[in-house]
Design a protein that fits this description.
Length: about 375
């Protein structure tokens, strides 16, 4: 009995270590490959309408603890030690300029845009702001996919040359542009969060041009991976490469390949994002848990971050919009026409999304000193 105990501990530790690559693979996008067959089975068994209702309902409520907090945690990361970052020496000069731009200039511009749109009851103006959000979301996704590939590869001791990075990024951006240009859109009327607007038209030749660009960039992607293999004698880690390809191909370029996948993608993207937030903050907390800082247990600090993110997410996406739509606008008892009954909800959601994209471009840059915790 006694002699067998150490072997049990060793086996359990080995099993735990063996499970980590699989867990990482699922969290950074690999779960998509398992969810798609389940979605097909669900559609066969229940029918498309019932399957869509069930998945849509599940994803809507999951947003409270997955999608929404992935936005709000960005604010907690970005504005921490704001004074030191804006005026001190924590950031380089160029990084400090980006911080000022994303942290002050961008929100002022967005708040002014949304405020003027609602004050003038202009669904067209607020619709343009929402279309900017839709345009940039693919850019945000593919950049995150590139980050997954870069960070997870670096953590396992393999890096890309400058030329390889350019080809990989080129494939990301080409995929994003093709996704935005397809299908051809002569200008379609949409209703989003109650706001009715007409989309900006896509010229007929734009889809063909961006598709050709995407095909060419795919050749560049293959060229970069072959060059990487010849130089490193190995491909990038499976989780890193699959996370990259799934993000670009399934979440952006061919996101509409399955009607249920459309509902799942925001949650899968958010899980991918939160995994790197967890990695960053866990490693930071571990390095500060003991002397000389003694900032408290890792679990406690991560727990407070999670609770704070959920609370802030509720305020940004539910509490504050409800207050302005029901109390402020409702007290006037006036119709806002094509702005619909919840213009402030539309404005808050659009503002947070757009601001999130810009804050991310500062947080996850290599010249941000905090990103060193991702390498631990």
């Amino acid at each position: 009995m006694t002699s067998a105990t150490p072997s049990l501990f060793v086996r359990a530790e080995r099993d735990s270590l063996a499970a980590r690559p699989l867990v990482e693979f699922l969290l950074v996008g690999g779960a998509t490959l398992f969810l798609l067959p389940l979605a097909w089975i669900l559609q066969l068994v229940a029918g498309l309408d019932d399957a869509e209702l069930a998945v849509g309902f599940l994803c809507f409520h999951a947003a409270y603890v997955i999608n929404d907090p992935h936005f709000s945690v960005t604010y907690l990361l970005f504005y921490r030690n704001a004074g030191q970052r804006a005026f001190g020496s924590e950031f380089s000069h160029s990084q400090r300029l980006r911080y000022w731009l994303a942290g002050l200039v961008v929100p002022i511009v967005l708040i002014t845009w949304a405020g003027v749109s609602i004050a003038r009851q202009s669904a067209y103006s607020l619709g343009l702001m929402m279309q900017l959000m839709f345009f940039l979301v693919g850019w945000h996704y593919v950049k995150q996919g590139f980050g997954v590939l870069s960070v997870l590869s670096a953590r396992r001791g393999t890096r890309f040359t400058r030329s390889e990075r350019r080809w990989l990024l080129g494939h990301c951006f080409a995929g994003w542009l093709y996704a935005r240009a397809s299908p051809v859109d002569p200008g379609t009327e949409y209703m989003e969060r109650g706001v009715i607007f007409t989309s900006l038209p896509h010229p007929k030749g734009l889809e063909a041009f961006t598709f050709a660009l995407f095909c060419f960039s795919t050749l560049g992607l293959v060229w970069a991976l072959v060059g990487h293999f010849r130089r490193e004698r190995r491909l990038p880690p499976v989780a890193a490469l699959c996370g990259f390809l799934i993000t670009v191909w399934l979440w952006v370029v061919y996101s509409s390949s399955d009607p249920l996948l459309v509902y799942m993608i925001p949650a899968l993207h958010s899980v991918q994002y939160l995994y790197f937030v967890w990695m960053l903050k866990r490693n930071e907390a571990k390095s500060q848990e003991g002397p000389p800082l003694f900032k408290g247990p890792v679990a406690t600090r991560l727990g407070w971050l999670a609770v704070s993110s959920i609370a802030l997410a509720w305020l940004l996406f539910h509490g504050a919009p409800w207050f302005f739509d029901e109390v402020v606008r409702g007290s006037r008892n006036t119709s806002l026409g094509d702005l619909g009954p919840t213009p402030f909800l539309a404005a808050f959601v659009t503002f947070v999304n757009l601001h999130h994209y810009f804050m991310d471009s500062v947080i996850w840059r290599r010249d941000n000193p905090e990103t060193r915790y991702l390498a631990m």
